[in-house]
Specification:
Elements: E1 4-8, H1 13-25, E2 30-35, E3 55-59, H2 65-75, E4 79-82, H3 89-94, H4 96-119, E5 126-130, E6 136-140, E7 142-148, H5 195-214, E8 218-223, E9 225-227, H6 236-245, E10 250-253, E11 259-264, H7 265-278, E12 284-287, E13 292-294, H8 295-309, H9 317-330, E14 344-347, H10 362-368, H11 376-389, H12 391-399, H13 405-410
Parallel strand pairs: 1-2, 1-4, 2-3, 4-7, 7-8, 8-12, 9-11, 10-14
Antiparallel strand pairs: 5-6, 11-13
Helix pairs in contact: 1-7, 2-4, 4-5, 6-8, 8-11
Bound molecules: nicotinamide-adenine-dinucleotide (NAD).
């Protein structure tokens, strides 16, 4: 099966995992990574696949309607997987306009260009590919928009102590708890609170409107927080791993009580692959691993994991003795035994900070057979290891040198 697919935002965190998966898994597809290379786009994330014959990078702004329309025609595009976005909530609070421009106008620009191209085909929304042997192959077009659970707003944290969760997946951590009775379902009403989530919500509405109004084959998915390799270190997990390594303070919003639902990024990429190929047109799918964590608990877990990985738990003989008796009595070590707990610094809470996100992904699991592959404890260890082993990547990003990579590689 031949397909010509544009993946937008492919130089970013999640996009780079999706591009890698598609390029490696589908050698018969042409995969075009379209990215503006903002501060969050880093082509070094894709070094391992950049020479593959089925991969091409195009530097483009998704707001550039003309250029995108031309690209659709030149490459006979039949599929779009749209991840490009401004993605950091804190930045959206400082600069909402950029978020409206990219996330709303950018998405609209892609939709309109795709509509014009796909409607100009002999059979609207079906793209005909000429094969090497002269035969013709028809590909049903598809516009797949990647969104976030943040569009649903915040859930109440009416079980602050945590209760036995009603759901579990492979991703759920050992001591997994639910911190409230409600979950986000595909039917949950949108109620975004930050400029980031408001802009993403707006783009989701436009995508659905293009299906309902023009019959464009669209799909929307809403995923929980992702973690894993290649995430820009302004986001909690890579930022804290790097700070712990360099023994810098760890700024924790409010009391660190906010709850997020975490999924390993490769499990999100696998879900995107399954949904792109088998998802039903006009449907929405929630993606998440049923893995709720209070920020403060996740931070403590990261500290312990980094400290152990760096061999920092080697304490004095007396402290070690205390450790052993603690371990015998309680089965695990208390926080104070880890050297870097003292780095935790509580700072003024983020404006409008949502209390709890928790997503129900039962529909995706039941209808399309997706399930996460990695338990949280394994995933976090793998992630910590990756950032510690790839200090060059981190140094490049934190020094800003990664932005020269494009000039070196593509000019
Ligand atoms: N990170 C998460 O936990 C998470 C969870 C759910 C959904 N999402 C969604 O997944 C998508 C990807 O998120 P991410 O964390 O990988 O983001 P990211 O910030 O790491 O990457 C975004 C990418 O988009 C590119 N980009 C930004 N503006 C552009 C423009 N105008 N034109 C072309 N390219 C542009 C950037 O250069 C970058 O490569 C976003 O749509 C986000 O809303 C993210």
């Amino acid at each position: 099966m031949k397909r010509n697919i544009i993946i937008t935002g492919g130089a970013g965190f999640i996009g780079s995992h999706v591009v890698r998966l598609f390029v490696n898994k589908y050698p018969e597809y042409n995969i075009i990574n379209l990215d503006k290379l903002t501060y969050a786009g880093n082509l070094a994330n894709l070094k391992d696949i950049e020479d593959k014959p089925n991969y091409k990078f195009v530097k483009m702004d998704i707001c550039d309607f003309e250029a995108f329309y031309q690209l659709m025609q030149d490459e006979k595009i039949d599929g779009i997987i749209h991840l490009a976005a401004e993605s950091h909530v804190d930045r959206s609070i400082k600069d909402p306009f950029t978020f409206a421009r990219t996330n709303v106008m950018g998405t609209l620009s892609l939709l309109q260009a795709a509509k014009l191209y796909w409607e100009s085909q002999p059979t609207p929304y079906v793209v005909e590919h000429e094969m090497a042997d002269g035969s013709k192959l028809k590909a049903q077009s598809r516009f797949y928009h990647i969104s976030t659970d943040e569009v649903y707003g915040a859930l109440e944290m009416n079980r602050p102590e945590g209760i036995e969760p009603p759901f579990k997946t492979v991703a759920s951590s050992e001591g997994h708890k639910a911190y409230g009775d409600e979950f986000f379902y595909e039917t949950t009403k949108y109620n975004p609170h930050s400029p980031y989530s408001a802009a993403k919500a707006s783009s989701d509405h436009f995508v659905r409107a293009y299906h309902d109004t023009y019959g464009m084959p669209t799909i929307v998915t809403n995923c929980s927080n992702n973690y894993g390799p290649y995430q820009f270190p302004e986001k909690l997990i890579p930022l804290f791993i790097n700070n712990i390594r360099h023994r810098k303070p760890l700024p924790v919003y409010g009391k660190g009580e906010n709850v997020r639902d975490w999924l390993y990024v490769e499990d999100h990429a696998r879900a995107i692959d399954i949904i792109f190929h088998n998802g039903k047109i006009a449907e929405t799918y929630n993606i998440g691993g049923f893995n709720e964590w209070k920020n403060i608990d996740i931070i403590k877990t990261i500290i312990k994991t980094v400290d152990i990985a760096l061999g920092r738990v080697e304490l004095t003989e007396e402290q070690q003795k205390m450790n052993s008796s603690w371990l015998m009595a309680h089965g695990s070590l208390p926080d104070e035994m880890f050297p870097d707990m003292s780095l935790i610094t509580y700072v003024t809470d983020r404006l409008g900070h949502d209390a709890r996100y928790a997503i129900d992904s039962t529909k995706l699991q039941k209808e399309l057979g997706w399930e996460p592959s990695l338990q949280f404890e394994e995933g976090i260890e793998k992630t910590v290891r990756w950032y510690l082993d790839n200090q060059d990547w981190m140094d490049n990003v934190t020094s800003g040198d990664y932005q020269k990579y494009y000039e070196e590689m593509y000019k």
